[in-house]
Amino acid sequence: MKKTIILLFIFLAHFGFGQDTLKNYSSTTRIPTKNPNFINCHDSISHVIDLASTNVKTNRVFAGVVIPDPLYPAKGNLSLGLRSTMSLFGSDNSKFGSGVGGQFRLMLGQRLNTEWFVDYITSNISNVGRRVDGHVGWSVMFYPFNSYRWRPYVLGGHCFDYTKIEAFSTNFTNHSSQSAHRWSSAVQMGLGTHLMITQRCDLSFTGQYMLHIGKDIHAEIVNELGTESLKIESHDEVGLEGHLLLIMSINYAIADLW
């Protein structure tokens, strides 16, 4: 009978059921026995329960309360990060751009996070000009699944951006004054995932489409005396311009605000 009770305690502790109840019971109840091998059964049971409590690998629901995974950041968590960004399928013959930036995140709930970011991206326009983009914006991130080390999310947000296009001079023409710039607004949506390295550090991978709304800047490559050059025109009409962003970032939690 005594051995049966002990095995029952260990079984319940292993599967995480009623750990608080078991601790209370084990702290107030000792199993009477004359066998010296079972004198410290109270301490052994408490030790097993503690091990079961500290080695939870996945989210559990106990008494209607979700116990968060140890690797998940908690609400109120503030983190800082560095990001590397690639811009694909841009207009104005700038098919590829790359840049760097920074961000911070503030966790609002177990499934809801916010991201506030800046980006600086440069794109080469067929070696005849250059495009520079600056982004300042924010996104809301929603986690649909209770996963463990990989944590996927969907995001949507808004940003303000600055764009400048300038032409390079050629052997025949000085284009140093040939440039145009604009301020615009944009919205973005995308998918991504965190790779949780520790509870406070993660790698994040995001793909998002950003749609800009602002004045149109048209850049066209023309042939000038057998040499290609960039012709830039700025229009007052409001237009749409989109590009795909691929982002990789590393983030570290620095504070728990609440």
Order of helices and strands: HHHEEEEEEEEEE
Overall pLDDT: 78
Distance between the amino and carboxyl termini: 48 Å
> What is the CATH first-level class name of the largest domain?
Mainly Beta
Number of separate helices: 3
Radius of gyration: 29 Å
Find the CATH topology of the largest domain.
Porin
Percentage of β-strand residues: over 45%
Q: For the largest sheet, list the strands in their spatial order.
A: 3-4-5-6-7-8-9-10
Largest beta-sheet characterization: 8 strands, antiparallel, barrel
Mass-distribution shape: elongated
Amount of helix: 10-25%
Number of domains: 2
Second-tier CATH architecture of the largest domain = Beta Barrel
Structural class label: mainly beta
Question: Would you identify the regions where 5 or more consecutive residues have pLDDT less than 50?
Answer: 11-62
Question: Care to count the β-strands?
Answer: 10
List keywords for this structure.
258 residues; 2 domains; elongated; two-stranded antiparallel ribbon; mainly beta; Porin; eight-stranded antiparallel β-barrel; 57% strand
What do these coordinates show?
The chain folds into two domains: 2-55, no CATH class; 77-256, Beta Barrel (Porin), CATH 2.40.160.20. It is built from three helices and ten strands, in the order αααββββββββββ. It has helices spanning 2-14, 19-28, 41-54, and strands at residues 60-62, 65-67, 77-88, 96-107, 112-125, 129-142, 150-167, 179-196, 201-224, 227-256. The strands form two sheets. The protein has an eight-stranded antiparallel barrel. It has a two-stranded antiparallel ribbon with strand order 1-2. α1 (2-14) runs parallel beside α3 (41-54) and α2 runs antiparallel to α3. It is elongated, with a radius of gyration of 29 Å. It starts with a helix and ends with a strand.
